Amino acid sequence: MEDFNEDTISLLKECNAGVKMGVNSIAEVIDHVRDERFRAMLNRSKEEHQKIGSEIHRLLNQCGESGKEPNPMAKSMSWLKTNIKMTMDESDATVADVTTDGCNMGVKSLRRYLNQYQNADGRSRRLTEELIRVEQQMTTDMAAYL
Predict the structure, then answer these.
(1) N or C: which end of the chain has fewer CB within 10 A?
(2) CATH number for the domain whose boundaries are 6-145
(3) pLDDT band (50, 70, 90) for residue 49
(4) How far apart are CA 102 and CA 100, in angstroms?
């Protein structure tokens, strides 16, 4: 069994929670999407999140750790914001708006965790950067739907 330092484990746990939040958020809005290209883009992003999440989970298992659930308050606030906005306007633009906000919050959090857990190993830092890239790409791809 490999040695995983405390920063590595903490960073992986935060990324695990972030992936779960991202996948749940996409699942929450995808049925509202009318444009097929937009729906396909969301599905691709969800699959990328799940692929990164599987690798994070594998690493956490290697060090005998379990994953982390998203912060219940953050999850509740996200759900509330999404559902209020979708009730008022169930358009692709609204889906793009709430998803872009979620991606931006995710990127900010992941950057903060990279700074906070500076002693995390290279593999966990690369996975975090990959997750940031996926979130940023989503934001770029959704710009056409805002």
Answers:
(1) N
(2) 1.20.1260.10
(3) very high
(4) 5
- pLDDT digit string, tens, across residues 81-136: 888 888 899 999 999 999 999 999 999 999 999 999 999 999 999 999 999 999 99
Each domain of the chain, given as residue ranges in start order, spans 6-145
- Closest C-alpha among 136, 114, 109, 135 to residue 125: 114
Torsion of CA 124, 52, 83, 29, to 10 degrees: 160
Distance from the first to the final alpha carbon of the chain: 47
* Strand positions, DSSP E, the chain: none
Please give the share of the chain, as a percent, with pLDDT higher than 70: 98
For 26, other C-beta atoms within 10 Å of its C-beta total 21
State the Cα–Cα distance between residues 117 and 123, nearest whole angstrom.
13
Sign of the CA dihedral running 114, 116, 8, 103: negative
Task: Note if the pTM is more than 0.85.
Answer: yes
